[in-house]
User: Which sequence fits this backbone?
């Protein structure tokens, strides 16, 4: 594992913040006007959050976090990028989410950064786990942040999709690959590229579904459900068709592209 993985990833995400805030992909003005970035299945599976405390780990610049606030939760967002937290705080001000709180911290240090506070709901959204080398430590941290009787909710891209070739038609990569992958790429997933001065190097890890579930169970959480979804939220492969979400064409074998789970802590 590269010794500088955390510094490299933080610097890269610091550089992504202004690009993402200005992007059509995130459509900040549309969000301020009332747009809903949370997916329908997330809203249904998390359920009513009114009056509940919710912590969003790896929250980026806070759109999903603040959406939960709009649905009635008292929210805290945590991210290791200070520019992201500053942007999230500014966005909270724009929509009048006066009780929303954002904290700068690496996810592994979240318990101390939040002074041992516990939450009714700990939420982790799409594209978060690939930035973490140690899921056992992540699960222990997340479990420590869940209040008794509360739950962790995770929505993620399914690791099976990572074995498919870029055309989405054949199996090309190793599902059980567990070494760090280092990328040197100035592009980002929104409609733009990083500034020339922004660091382009990132370090990522692939985590199988069994690894995720086993880590959470070992941390003392009880899996309530694990749902695998045959759709995704972006054009991961050129063969996918867009009908509100992205799916393989009708008539061809389906594979899981996303998953979601809910894991509770005994009261």
Assistant:
């Amino acid at each position: 594992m590269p010794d500088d993985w955390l510094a490299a990833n933080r610097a890269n995400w610091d550089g992504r913040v202004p690009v993402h805030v200005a992007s059509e992909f995130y459509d900040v003005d549309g969000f301020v006007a009332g747009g809903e970035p949370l997916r329908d299945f997330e809203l249904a599976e998390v359920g009513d959050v009114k009056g509940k405390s919710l912590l969003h780990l790896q929250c980026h610049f806070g759109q999903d976090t603040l959406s939960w606030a709009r649905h009635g939760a008292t929210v805290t967002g945590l991210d290791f990028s200070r520019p992201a937290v500053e942007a999230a705080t500014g966005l909270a001000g724009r929509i009048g989410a006066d009780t929303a709180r954002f904290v700068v911290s690496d996810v592994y240090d979240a318990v101390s950064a939040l002074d041992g506070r516990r939450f009714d709901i700990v939420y982790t959204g799409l594209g978060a786990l690939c930035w973490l080398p140690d899921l056992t430590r992540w699960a222990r941290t997340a479990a420590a942040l869940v209040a008794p009787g509360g739950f962790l909710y995770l929505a993620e891209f399914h690791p099976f999709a990572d074995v498919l070739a870029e055309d989405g038609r054949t199996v090309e990569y190793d599902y059980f690959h567990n070494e760090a992958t280092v990328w040197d790429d100035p592009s980002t997933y929104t409609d733009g590229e990083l500034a020339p001065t922004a660091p382009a190097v990132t370090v990522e890890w692939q985590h199988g579904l069994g690894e995720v579930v086993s880590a959470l169970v070992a941390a003392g959480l009880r899996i309530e459900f694990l749902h695998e979804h045959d759709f995704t939220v972006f054009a991961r492969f050129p063969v996918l068709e867009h009908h509100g979400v992205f799916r393989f064409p009708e008539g061809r074998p389906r594979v899981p592209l996303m998953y979601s789970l809910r894991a509770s802590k005994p009261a």
Notes: The mean pLDDT is 96.
